[in-house]
Write a structure and sequence with these properties.
CATH architecture of the domain at 4-130: 3-Layer(aba) Sandwich
Strand content: 5-15%
CATH topology of the domain at 4-130: Rossmann fold
Number of strands: 5
């Protein structure tokens, strides 16, 4: 069972997916939206335990959305983290002064983030910071490169999966188009087949009709020839009688 529900507000789908996967490790379910306006609408429609706000958003920016949340008596209790590439100390101080629970970089250390979320979910009185641990300069540099590499690998992984999903969708679309094309060809073949059969039937009818007409004409001609022969015999008999009378 999920331990909480988090709202991620970021106009980058890749950033939303990466953070959502990190939060899944803390047994959190997530809802992602692409603008502060959508985020505020979701906060008023659903119950969330955490909010992660990007700073640069279309329309209202993250800090403006934070002000709206903290000014709302029904929403101000929800911990809000600024999930942004803004790293200036002045920005961090401004965000915390407005009520943010913390400022998280886009390439934040995963273990630190999970530790912070764990503290929030268990109602800890103090939250661990999300700044780098106090280590030697060499260790800090190594951790910095590790975070960057991890973030880039995660981004590549998400990009690969998104591309894979797009290719799978494209294959389905191509298969559907091929099926529709084949169906159209089958319909055309059937239409041509029926047209050919109709043409053959029509031609056969014409031949049969004219065959019957020719047969009837032949019968009439035979009858006429018979009558002419009879008339010739009669005429011949009359001629014979006339010649006999003259003699």
């Amino acid at each position: 069972m999920a331990r909480g529900h988090a709202l991620i507000v970021d106009d980058s789908s890749t950033a939303r997916i990466i953070l959502a996967r990190l939060l899944e490790r803390a047994d959190l379910t997530t809802k992602g939206v692409a603008s502060a306006e959508e985020g505020l609408e979701q906060l008023r429609e659903q119950t969330f335990d955490l909010v992660f706000l990007d700073h640069l958003l279309p329309g209202m920016n993250g800090l403006e959305a934070l002000d709206v949340i903290k000014a709302d008596s029904e929403l101000r209790h929800i911990p809000v983290f600024m999930y942004t590439s803004q790293s200036a100390e002045r920005y961090r101080q401004d965000a915390k002064a407005r009520g943010a629970a913390g400022v998280i970089g886009k390439q934040v250390d995963r273990e630190q983030l999970l530790t912070t979320i764990e503290a929030i979910l268990t109602d800890a009185s103090t939250l661990p910071g999300l700044s780098p641990f106090e280590n030697t300069p060499g260790e800090l540099i190594e951790q910095s490169y590790t975070r960057r590499l991890t973030g880039r690998l995660a981004t590549l992984e998400i990009a690969y999966e998104e591309t894979h999903d797009e290719l799978r969708h494209l294959r389905k679309t191509v298969a559907l188009l091929e099926a529709m094309h084949q169906e159209g060809l089958d319909r055309q073949r059937n239409r041509l087949k029926w047209l050919a059969l109709g043409g053959i039937a029509g031609l056969s009818g014409i031949v049969l009709f004219f065959g019957l007409e020719l047969r009837d004409l032949s019968t009439v001609l035979e009858s006429v020839n018979g009558q002419l022969a009879v008339m010739q015999e009669i005429v011949g008999s009359l001629v014979d009688l006339v010649e006999t009378d003259r003699q």
